[in-house]
Structures are given as structure tokens and as C-alpha cells.
Amino acid sequence: MKMISSAKMHKAEQSLRKLGPFRQQIESIIGNLLSADAEFSSPLTESRDIHRLGIVIFGSDDGLCGAYNVNIFKELLKLITTYRGQFGDNVDIVLYPVGAKIAKAVAKIAGLHISIVETPDVDSKTTGDGVKIFMEYLRDSFIKCDIDRVDMLYTSFHSAGRQAIKSEQFLPVVAETFATQENAETNRPYLFEPDAPTIFQSVLPMYLLAVAQDIFTENRASEQAARVMAMQSANDNAKKLLEELQLEYNKLRQQGITTELLDILGGQVRD
User: What is the pTM of this model?
Assistant: First the structure.
């Protein structure tokens, strides 16, 4: 199990490396667009009062990954408490669980002002077109004002031994995401064809797709890394238990031999 999880983790890690340059390039393009003098807007950047807030929670479909799902669920409870304080107790929170284990966990908190939207065609192993369809579903829900904001709660993958739970705003797209000091230093004058607003309208959905693909992949890599650590811990505990049982067996065996020797010696003395 550990070897299988390790192989899956390295595969997801390689996918992350391939996705990284694509996302960075799109972010660079949008950063250059935002730094231009042209004025443009998109329904995907529209900020409005928060009445319905969506949270996509990424977990696992399979077990044997330690406290992976438990830690995500605890972070979700903290996040809901934070949003209650920020937007008020009457804000409706819509949860989109990705993964059977986390779906089972969040079902316990459904109730007043908290609803759960099941995503049967989307799970922790979803890739490619499945991610695109899910992203378009979230995008359309936001454009139709069914949801006023969408956040992603997932485990960010840094290395095999280090993962961190992260909350990231997905919609609306905020300009601060791209207006970083790094972009300001690397941006150069560009000529936009056909024009900046048209390019912006085309690139922004590509950016959302890149982010969604990145998050799904990070979730898979983090899940497998957690499973590797859980299997390693189980293996270490099994070895420790085996050593303790072996020691106990040797003690009982030695005690049995000693008893037999005493019985033999006792019989010789009586003779």
C-alpha cells in the first residue's frame, strides 16, 4: 500500500510541475493586462454583497490516510465560524464536498443556513474534462448570482513530508491576485490584438480552469502523501508490536524451560 501510494504521489507531483508553467504564464498575461491603461471588466470579477457563499471542500474518496479528512473538516468548521463573524449569522453557506469521506463528514453539519450540494460526477480522482465541467458549473452559478462568492478549501502540496491546508478565493477573481510586486517588475509594454478587453474575456476562464486543475492535482498529491505517512506509521507500529510480542514470547519460553529444569532437578533430589 505504501509503495502504491508513493507511486501515485510522484505521478501527481509530476503533473503539478507540468501545470505550473501554464498557470504562471496565464497569470503573467492577466497581470500585464491589468497594468495596461485600457479599461475592461468581466462578470467573473464582479464583487457583490455576500448572501450565499460557496465552499468547495477537497477530501479523499478512500481511507487509510490518517487524519487527512479530519484535519480538513476541522479547518472547515473554523472557516465557517470566521465567515459568520465576517458576513453575519444569516449568510447562507453552500458546501460542495469533493470526495466520499469528506462528503460523509460535512453531512453532519447540514442545517440552518448550511446546505450541501452533492457532486456525484466529481470526486478526488477527477481529471481533465471532469474538472472543466465542474469549473464551468461553479462559474455559471456565480454569473447567475446563485452564489455570490466561491472559496476552495484544500490541502496544498509542498513536499512528500509537508502539506498545509489552504483556503483560496476562486470567484470572483480579484485583481490583487495578479498585481504583485513580481509582476510589476517583470511586466513589459505589450501590443494587444485584437484588444485588451477581448483578450481579458478569453484568458480569465482559462485562468479559472488552470487554478481548478492545480487544486485537484494538489489534493491528489497531498492525499497520497498523507497515505504514505500513515502506512509508514502503521509499518513502524507493527514492527514495534512484533518486537514486544517476540520479547514476551522469549520470556514465556525461558520461564517454561526454567520450570522444566526445576522439575527435573527436584525429581533427582527426591530419588
Answer: 0.84
